[in-house]
Amino acid sequence: MRITTRISPFYILLAGLMVGLVLLGLLLMPKVHAAGKGERLVMIHDRGVDRGILTKSSSLKEVLHEAHIKLDKNDRVEPGLDEQLVASNYQVNIYRARPIVIIDGNVKQLVMSAYQTPKQIAKHAGIELQDEDIANVEISSDFVSDGAATRMIIDRALPIQLKLYGKQQIVYTQATSVKQFLQEKKITLGKDDDMSAMDSTPITSNMALSIWRNGKQTITQEEPVAFETERIQDANRDVGFKQINTPGTDGTKMVTYEIIMQDGQEVSRTAIQSIVTKAAVKQVETVGSKKKGGTPAQNRILGKAMMIEAGFGEDQWSCLDNLWTRESGWDQYKSNYSGSGAYGIPQALPGSKMGTGWQDDPATQINWGLGYIRGRYGTPCGAWAAFQSKGWY
Asked: Is 328 helix (H, G, I), strand (E, B) or coil?
């Protein structure tokens, strides 16, 4: 028996079409030869176009230069341009920068960015986003106004000054009411808890919201520990010299307090525990202890000469000598530690008002003192009379 099978012309045509597509695909495939000795295959993906290149270059920057691929300063390449090529093949992605208009409230700015996600774009543009901020990237519907085909709109969360069980902090929220805020932050009030606002209170920017627990409770907070200062006296350095040998740094400690709250107000606080979490570092300083200038006897001689030079007569000397002998004993380093803090031969208060050299220069102190006497009392004897009457001048 002879069986004859007839093939439909449609199937013959279909088979021919499939063969043609396969051949066309082979013709269109990138012609990449096998890597030879010392060569590596780099596949470059750039805006939907794939290109393979055999190279002996040692860095990706050299490969792109070899392939005549130019980059804008805002384009991104993965791996990085300075990537040292050591493997036999690489997949390289080029992300081209495009203009993006960022709308942040009333502020609009145009940036060039190759990044794709809102957080990446914002970081590249130097814009800080809070976790609660909402940012969306979309196609612009107004290219003429935006100047770009892509725009990113930022919906800012509102800041709240939250005091939660004694701890003050700034938090951000997209909620429109206090009730929604509590739900958003998963804050559940206990039977002894109270709040400074009602559930229905609208959220406004930088509003203050306090949540507390009435009765006795404990809180733990971090506090600074001030560093101590050790001063080393150097007799070879003049008074006023200071050199920091080891800078001091503050430490930290965790302090637990027992507090009593009534109607949201703290009525008492007692520290019940303190643990140093970071020790303070002592500051070590070298300070000068060498006194410069004359002795009290020498200062008296200088004082009389400067008094005469300032235009006061010889008859004023006994008054000036009595005055400053009582005030300082003519010691330029005399300081009234136990009282006012007055300093120097004329006991200026504060000493710094005497100007440059006020700490140790007798001439500076005497010059200022004579000027003060002239302006307030006219003469040294006038100042001495006031001192005798009041005990100060």
From this structure: coil
